[in-house]
């Protein structure tokens, strides 16, 4: 049994996933339950078999077997991404292909479902999980949400090792303006401002729109700006939710955040490193290599939990402002996958 202190909700969901994969019972003392925890536990029960838990003064989690399959899950007032990000870790190791339709918020000030589709799925594909998709059936801005997202992920036997130790140049920048029930002048202004603001980085710039009507969105109007920069094997991103600010201020903030991500990141945007390190811990015993520049506080916590649950080992060597990470996975294999 692993005894832990209660972390924030995002880290809590990672811990449950680690417990399921490692088959280790978890105990959290002086536990405080909230609606997200109850909802996420309900989701875990849907996609696993024989998972049990107790919530009294302490929380005790008895992991079951990973199953997958088809289901529907209501994310209440929470961002759908809070559920999908930890599910990205479990989904490749199911017995049956995972197909879940989520309802809830697709866009607020947390990671948008658009960024999950553009960036996080790319991480899975790097590790050999190719049969995966996200479809935004209905867009749901806060506060009322009522968006709808279809998530599908096929299973694999094991994760591939990766090698991303070389420095890369920026090749292209893509922008996206997503919205629901907004004046058409807003996306037009944002598109022109984005093009003017990023062309000094690269001439390969394109901006797309995804504007939904009442039939393909929830009741709340809203819009969001997404920026995505790519090298040959690297990517960085930023996003800004529309509010009372002028379009020019919104674009300036998004570009500033993108520049910050590029400066603080190398092989992967620093914001996806918790997912990257989790997969690195589960690859074969062969060495994987990535370049990093900074590690966020959440990622430091995740690295500690990876050591606790999987005895994860890595080393690094400094190269000017960067670190080259040599990672040694635990050789995890999908014991539930049916051999065809």
UniProtKB/TrEMBL annotation:
Could you name the Gene Ontology cellular component terms for this entry? nucleolus
Any one GO molecular function term? RNA endonuclease activity
The protein's superkingdom reads Eukaryota
Which segments constitute the RNA 3'-terminal phosphate cyclase domain? 15-314
The residue ranges of the RNA 3'-terminal phosphate cyclase insert domain are 167-246
InterPro entries on file:
RNA3'-term_phos_cycl_insert, RNA3'_phos_cyclase_dom, RNA3'_phos_cyclase_dom_sf, RNA3'_term_phos_cyc, RNA3'P_cycl/enolpyr_Trfase_a/b, RPTC_insert
Q: Name one Pfam family in it.
A: RTC_insert
Matching SUPFAM superfamilies, A to Z? Answer: EPT/RTPC-like
What is one Gene Ontology biological process annotated in the Swiss-Prot or TrEMBL record? endonucleolytic cleavage of tricistronic rRNA transcript (SSU-rRNA, 5.8S rRNA, LSU-rRNA)
Name this protein carries in UniProt:
RNA 3'-terminal phosphate cyclase
- Organism, by scientific name, is Hamiltosporidium tvaerminnensis
